[in-house]
Amino acid sequence: MSVESYLERLYEEGRQADTSTSKRSEMMLNITPSTGVFLDLLLSELKPKRILELGTSNGYSTIWLARAAKRIGSQVDTVDKSYKKAQLAGQHLAECNLQDVVVLHVADGGEFLRGCDTAIYDFVFLDADRAAYCHWVDDLVRVTRFGLLVVDNAISHSMELREFKRHLSTNFGFNVTVLPIGNGQMIVQDVG
Ligand SMILES: C[S@@+](CC[C@H](N)C(=O)[O-])C[C@H]1O[C@@H](n2cnc3c(N)ncnc32)[C@H](O)[C@@H]1O
Asked: How far is the CA of 5 from the centre of ligand 1 (A)?
């Protein structure tokens, strides 16, 4: 099966899983296919060497990142606090033959960021625990060689991300733009 068909199938499975449970921790909450296409385009253009994803879930978005990473010769680190979801993601990545470009980390995103060296990532995709982003912001900026930070749910959950967005633009002076793709993509750039 092609990666394209695999992604279509996984997305449908994710949607079905999300409607069959009321427990958020069991939901897959995948990005939309249009967000996947957008990430692929960004990576193809920017060719970052090291990519970080916070919020792996079942690996749907990771497959989009990994497929582009393989094409451009880069590596993906992806982090999720759920061991079960990381295991599932590992299985899905292997089925797409993309396991060699991805390192799966089971960790809290904030703890993972604290343990990272400075400026080691040149592309970060953030899709984890929105309530924690304001606590993670200093380390996020520290580990990202700006670079680019893309944050999902910038429209669907704009109020939850308001303070984080303000912090990035006011305190750090970054250019923050929201694009109407999928659930809304916040693009954070250092234009200084
Ligand atoms: C919206 S889902 C990610 C969806 C995934 N990016 C995709 O599109 O396939 C959010 C994920 O973040 C994880 N998560 C939530 N809080 C976290 C935290 N503090 N540290 C690491 N992962 C966390 C959840 O376990 C969940 O799998």
From this structure: 23
